[in-house]
């Protein structure tokens, strides 16, 4: 005597909720940074799909699989969900936007009083958030609005033998490697003193 036939039911698109992932994989980003949210559906039949996105249970005007926030602001904080076609809504994932990745830079000069011929060092001083202490920042220096040292990982601009023409208004700028967050110092006037005869 035969038993009842076993019926295997394939999961349908509607029964499998998608999962949201972040790129970069940070649940907390900083003001001005960019992040991409992706609506991932394991069961992915061929064909076009309409995606729906929700923040704090309210639908937002995004209909692609990838939702990119180019310049994060406080309004982007919230619990995100997505749908792919007729799928269920994904579980909510939280995105937080924190105050600042690094502080506004300011110019430091060594030595304080510079004589013609002295070795001078200008430092672009800023502080990274402890949450992102390994972030590599890039620095650039300007004198009277003209670039004197292009973007590099060094936060110092050195002149081996300062001359009178090195006097002027100095500023520096700090940015993330992608340039998504960029801040500039206020102007600092530097006067090179002539040699005393």
Q: What's the alpha carbon Rg, rounded to whole Å?
A: 27 Å
**Computed structural class:** mainly beta
Any low-confidence stretches, pLDDT <50, length ≥5?
6-13
Kindly report the name of the CATH homologous superfamily of the largest domain.
Answer: Immunoglobulins
Helix content: under 10%
What's the β-strand tally? Answer: 18
- In N-to-C order, the SSE pattern is EEEEEEEEEEEEEEEEEE
Number of helices: 0
Please give the CATH architecture of the largest domain: Sandwich
What fold name goes in the CATH topology slot of the largest domain?
Answer: Immunoglobulin-like
Task: Describe the structure using short key phrases.
single chain, about 200 residues, mainly beta, Immunoglobulin-like, 2 domains, signal, transmembrane signaling receptor activity
Question: Would you give an account of this structure?
Answer:
The protein is 0% helix and 43% strand. The protein has 197 residues and is mostly beta strands. It has a five-stranded mixed beta sheet with strand order 2-8-7-4-5, with no helix packed on it. Strands 12, 13, 15, 16 and 17 form a five-stranded antiparallel beta sheet that branches. Strands 1-3-6 form a three-stranded antiparallel beta sheet, with no helix packed on it.
């Amino acid at each position: 005597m035969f038993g009842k036939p076993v019926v295997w039911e394939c999961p349908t698109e509607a029964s499998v909720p998608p999962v949201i992932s972040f790129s970069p994989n940070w649940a907390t980003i900083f003001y001005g940074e960019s992040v991409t949210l992706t609506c991932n559906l394991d069961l992915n039949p061929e064909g076009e799909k309409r995606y729906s996105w929700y923040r704090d249970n309210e639908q937002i005007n995004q209909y692609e699989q990838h939702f990119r926030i180019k310049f994060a602001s406080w309004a982007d904080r919230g619990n995100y969900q997505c749908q792919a076609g007729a799928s269920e809504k994904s579980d909510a994932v939280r995105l937080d936007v924190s105050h600042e990745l690094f502080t506004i830079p300011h110019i430091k000069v060594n030595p304080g009083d510079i004589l013609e011929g002295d070795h001078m060092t200008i430092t672009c001083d800023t502080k990274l958030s402890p949450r992102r202490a390994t972030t590599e920042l890039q620095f650039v220096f300007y004198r009277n609005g003209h670039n004197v040292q292009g973007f590099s990982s060094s936060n110092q601009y050195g002149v081996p033998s300062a001359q009178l023409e090195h006097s002027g208004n100095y500023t520096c700028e700090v940015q993330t490697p992608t340039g998504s967050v960029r801040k500039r110092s206020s102007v600092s006037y530097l006067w090179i003193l002539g040699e005393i005869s």
